[in-house]
Amino acid sequence: MIDRILKAVLKFPLAFFQELGELGILAFNVFFWALRPPYRFGVLINALAFVGVGSIFIVGLTGIFTGAVLALQSYQGFRQFRAEGMVGGVVGMSLTRELGPVFSALMVSSRAGSAMATELGTMRVTDQIDAIATMAVNPIQYLVVPRVLATMIMLPALCMLFNVVGMFGAWFVAIHILDIDPGVFFERLRLWVDPSDVFGGLFKSVVFGFLISLIACHKGFHASGGAAGVGEATTKAVVYSAVVILVVDYFLTTLMVSNG
Question: In terms of pTM, does the model score above 0.85?
Answer without folding.
Answer: yes
